[in-house]
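Ticket #4471: structure export looks truncated?
Reporter: QA, pipeline team
Priority: medium

Steps to reproduce: submit the single chain below to the structure queue and open the exported record.
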Amino acid sequence: MQYLGSPLELAHGRPWRNRVALAPLTNLQSNADGTLSDDKYRWLVRRAEGGFGLVMTCAAHVSPEGQTFPGQLGICDDTHLDGLRRLATGIRSAGSVSAVQLQHGGRRADPALSGRPALGPWDDPQRGVTALTTDQIERVIADFADAAVRAERAGFDGVEIHGAHGYLVAQFLDVRHNRRTDRFGGSAENRFRIVHEIIAAIRAATSSDLQLGLRLSPERYGIVLDEARALAGEVLSDGQLDYLDLSLWDAFKRPYEEHHSDRLLIEYFVDLPRGSTRLGVAGKILDAPGARECLERGADFVLIGTGAILHHDFARHVAADDEFRAMDTPVPERHLVNESVGPRFVDYLDDRWDDFVIR
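Actual output as written to the record:
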């Protein structure tokens, strides 16, 4: 059994100094044009200084029409490169491996931000969403690859494909609604296809040193557990990914589907053959015992969200102290400011959760 503080070797690129990664957290701190702000830089570099093995950005939109929320980091244009270079350099100088999470909002994109209509796998007139043509899907796949090239040019160690949380890639996995009649819809094989084609396109466009990950949600958003397990098995075993990042919402929960509730959700994935591909889990991991439990159950690493907001050095603490636990919320705004959480991020936390910030 590997310890939280032990290095993690991957098939490509630099090893991580430990098994604790910063989860890709929405924080609304970028400039309106998607370029890097000083607040975003301080938020991420401070986590690298705090000892995280991998520091990953929030979702960065790969296509102009894919922008989903204000203050979102962009990676769809070369105008974003200068800030990305600064960020990659800062993270590397602090000792962490760096990654950009690549995202397209699809049906959840905001036309008010992009000035472009929302596009998704299927038509949804009530939401003003138009179905992508096959040619447009191929363009989106190319946009993911172009963004990965841009990340590598900027000096990042890797990228992660955002296939979770109901954004575009996850929308294709939706068994309820994706009834397309081209090669990207209908059967599970066809609904999975965009994932495999994005992975292949990125691998073909980038160097052998670039680390490549994929985030999946195994439940919700029209995704059923048996299909999530099947897709996870495919990407774990085909040797193209360096890691699979499972967003479980709660790493210690049982599945929603009653006929699968005999064991924990994590246990449906840790037994899959994975070769050299690493498996990470995220969801309510708030202390050293919980992080260790995930490794003991078979994960290779953990991704930390709330704990990393509350403690820039959460990774260092859990590697050194077997009993460390993140402080309880709510916390004073001043504490978050001292942890390099910028004002827009504080506002977002205060708006989304009524028990996070004391103002």
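Status: closed, not a bug. The export was complete when the record was re-opened. Leaving a note from the reviewer for reference: The mean pLDDT is 97.
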